[in-house]
Amino acid sequence: YKKYCKEIREYADSLGISCNQTHAPYPIYCKPILKLQKKAIIASSILGAKYMVIHPDNFLDDETNAKIIKKLAKYAKKHSVKIAVENIWNWSGTRAIYAAGSTPESLLNIINLVDSDYVGVCIDIGHAEMMNELGNACSFINTLKDKVIALHVHDNDKVNDQHRMPFTESIDFNEVTKALRDVNYQGEVTMEVIYYYKNNVDK
User: Fold this and answer.
1) Of 122, 117, 100, nearest in space to 109 by CA
2) pLDDT band at 201 (very low <50, low <70, confident <90, very high)
3) Which residue, 1, 53, 46, is CA-closest to 22?
4) Rounded distance between C-alpha atoms, residue 110 and residue 69, angstroms
5) I need a surface site. Which of 45, 93, 101, 121 has the fewest CB within 10 A?
6) Who contacts 183 (Cβ-Cβ below 8 Å, separation ≥6)?
7) How far apart are alpha carbons 13 and 44 in whole angstroms?
């Protein structure tokens, strides 16, 4: 895998394309996938990524997730990659429900428990807007402030994880961008609009 990552890096460099972030394998509640996290950190380093986004374990509490991430943070520091913990949810019937890291308070708790300069937050705007009374993108931004080191941006109907282009569904991106200005967000923005490309590639 190291050889393959080096080949990708060389090809990307030849095209002038940089890799700002990667996404770790998930779900980490599967033990074989959890074991891949260190390899993912090495791969991220080879590719030149500053951040590796990771999902918390949906079925564990904040404290246990923090212990897992803290161990990975030491490894990430060794390879000069920062871990960005992403807000995610559990699903029940027709709606997103609470899971570790699914609310601003839970995500902040995990980050504070880890207490590492090599761990921050990736706010997934679409995921945040699915949490109903438990939070929205602006509450995540306003609560986590300078802990936010990465963004995943896409639109949805505030119920389903649709990964649509911004301004095509129900999320108020004027409010989101205002919140980002208010906390002086200086990081990069990653568009996660894979379904847009899947649905339009042949049109």
Assistant:
1) 100
2) low
3) 53
4) 9
5) 93
6) 141, 142, 145, 146, 148
7) 15
End-to-end CA distance of the chain: 35
Q: In 115-188, which ranges are continuous DSSP H helix?
A: 125-128, 137-144, 173-182
Round to whole Å and give the CA distance between 60 and 141. Answer: 24
pLDDT tens-place string over residues 131-183? 999 999 999 999 999 999 999 999 999 999 999 999 999 999 999 999 999 99
Q: What is the mean pLDDT of residues 39-47?
A: 98
* pLDDT score at 194: 78
How far is 14 from 190, CA to CA, in rounded Å? 22
Q: Return the SS3 of 17.
A: coil
What is residue 172's three-state secondary structure?
A: coil
Residue type for 88, please? I
The rounded percent of the chain whose pLDDT value lies above 90 is 94
Tell me the per-residue pLDDT of 67-79, one tens digit each, with 9 for 90 and over. Answer: 999 999 999 999 9
Question: Could you tell me if 119 and 83 are in contact, meaning their C-beta atoms sit under 8 angstroms apart?
Answer: yes
pTM above 0.90, yes or no: yes
